[in-house]
Amino acid sequence: MRGLLRFLLSASLSACAVGPDYVRPDAEIPGAYRASTTPANWPSPTWWHGFASPDLDALIATARAGNFDLQAAAARIRQADAQLVIAGAALLPAATASASDQWSRTSLRRSAGAVGRATETRTFQFGPSASWELDLWGRVKAGRDGAAATALASRFDADAVALTVVTAVASTWFQALALQDRVDIARNNLDDAEQVLRAIQARAAAGTASLLDVSQQSALVANVRAQIPSLRSQLEQQVTALGLLLGRPPSSITVRPGTLTALALPDISPGLPSALLARRPDIAAAEARLRTANANIRVARAAYFPTVSLTSSAGWQSLALGSLFGPGSAFANAAATASLPIFENGRISAQVAYNEALYDELVATYRSIIVQAFTDVENGTRAYQFATEQEDLVRQAVAVAHQAADIAREQVRAGTSDVVTALQTQTTLFNDLDLLAQVRLARFQALLSLYKALGGGWAHDDIESPTVRLFQGVL
Fold it and tell me: How far apart are CA 361 and CA 425, in angstroms?
């Protein structure tokens, strides 16, 4: 028996896995981006500090501490860690201790000429027992490997959620600032239009302007005034949206007035596409799930082979509690069992086929995520380039419109210009100023998209958790 145990233990420790070994799938990696060929300037892990906004820093810090999606992601990490412990527990023997007190009574029926009797039996027993499934074919280890990969994926998913939350907070904050800018522009435009209206009214009182001129300028004033409530409503909606991102009721959110023009625009560039694979948590999560699927194939294939288990128990047994640990009450037994599936109606083959098909699906998903990552970088880079160009052009248009509006305003006051020309220059200036605020927001949003496309400063080598290093050793 001891020789058999030594043989089985040696076989278990040198278990032969039934494959296949994991190999990272091939993916088409372009040599460079179409939108950029500049050297890499990757975001830092705290990239939002580059906007030089203490208010934004405070909002993001609050979101990272209180966002519900981040809390749920942290809970999923703990779930995956627990599943890893469960999956790895079968690699070692399991031991239990038990105690029992059994009592039985047997009554004999009375027969002719005999008195019925009853027999009572009481047995006390105490002792440990152990069981161990020998992982000869690597089934249990493959299950543990799959659970480790899932635990890694949960961490990468949490990093992806964090990146999404941070960019969402920044995006919502930028939209709020842009709407505040547009409200301020509308109010300034309203003041200018009212000044022109008063000048036209003065001319009408002097007989140098008509009631039609007054009505036309009054209509412009009313139109500008009517735009302000809609902008303020949109501003309040963005402030309310911040509440959900920060994990707080909207009524507790206060946003100080601000402007996009006061923020800095940090410079980043994507570098080479091949470097992106290690800087996107969604790509890392997709590959971790591939490892899980690969391990599940090994688990399914191991079901074709025999299952060998060792069980043993020992302890003391006696008819009297007082003599339970006395001489002669000790007992021990050991057993080795093996089972091999013979006829299971194709269940194992179907399970293997299912896991292989699932792996193929995840390979396609992995490659799709990589292509999507390259697409995100291309779109973010191009959007930022064009938004920057457009903002410069709109600034030039605003400068010209300002000049034209100033000239028309002075001519209206002097009575040397018709009201139609003044209305046209005012309308052009108002529209250009509002467009400039929107284009400025588009530029900030494009930069945010590029930050997110580049992984927001995340890198696979940045993982420092000892638990994660253990998982990487497992894989």
Answer: 60
